[in-house]
Amino acid sequence: MPPYRDSLVHFFRFIIVGGVSTIVNYLVFLVFLKYVGLQYQLSSSCGFLAGVMVGFPLNKMWTYQHSSGVTWGLLGRYASVYAVSLFVNICVLGVLVGFFRTDARLANIVGIGITTVTNFIGTKFWVFGSE
Question: Would the keyword Membrane turn up in this protein's UniProt record (predicted)?
Fold first, then answer.
């Protein structure tokens, strides 16, 4: 079996979990933006947090099949990866919407796309690969 097989399996599972998390993220974003009337960056933050809350247990149990219990260290590392990701996403939104006048709905999709690879690397090697 090739040594990179586990990484490929993890990546494909991460993409599936990411797809589910992204759907949750985007639906929450749209609800807060359109129906609650929240500003686009705050709406994006709410969606992002909802997606992270869905993604953590799915990534732990299915993507990486991480067998140890949930610890503060594990939660802290996961939160750190996604806090950086949220910051990057908010910056992308700010630049695309504020500077390039891109529609916030499209800009949010671009931000999600940009952070996917860094999230995978962070969760695979730092969060779930460190215990």
Answer: yes
